[in-house]
Amino acid sequence: MSQYVLDAHFIVAALVILCALVFSWNTMGRRVMVAVTGLQFLVGLIVAGVYHPSSSVIWFHIGGALAAMVAYIFARRIGERPGKEGLAIVLSILGLLLALGTFSLGITLARGSM
């Protein structure tokens, strides 16, 4: 059962990166990113409890995922304001970079647990 949760987490992580590259550049796409990163965060908490309950590195992974989600939340809200699209794009890029870093750290964690 737990292997299926880890596989689901990896698949949704790939979906997060794909959605970040494709959808995160407009308001509707940022809404998608908030939903996908939120789902990934919830699945990730389950994976963290099963595979890495005492690892200190997992907190960086969880923090990066949470920071990426917050960046997309702020980008979506700020992007709805007139004249603030540039700041929303910067926050979307920050969210993408955080998602990529978190994905990389997750791959490192997964290799250590298998």
List the helices and strands and how they pair.
Elements: H1 2-22, H2 27-51, H3 57-79, H4 85-113
Helix pairs in contact: 1-2, 1-4, 2-3, 3-4
Could you please describe the fold and organization of this structure?
- The protein has 4 helices and no strands.
- With 114 residues, the chain is an all-alpha fold.
- The chain has one domain.
- Helix 2 packs antiparallel against helix 3 and helix 3 (57-79) packs antiparallel against helix 4 (85-113).
Strand content: under 5%
Mean of residue pLDDT values: 87
Helix-strand string: HHHH
Structural class computed from helices and strand pairing: mainly alpha
Alpha-carbon distance between the two ends: 15 Å
Question: Low-confidence segments, ≥5 residues, pLDDT <50?
Answer: none
Q: Percentage of helical residues?
A: over 70%
Number of helices: 4
Number of strands: 0
Provide a concise account of the structure shown.
The protein has 114 residues and is an all-alpha fold.
Keywords:
114 residues; mainly alpha; 86% helix; elongated
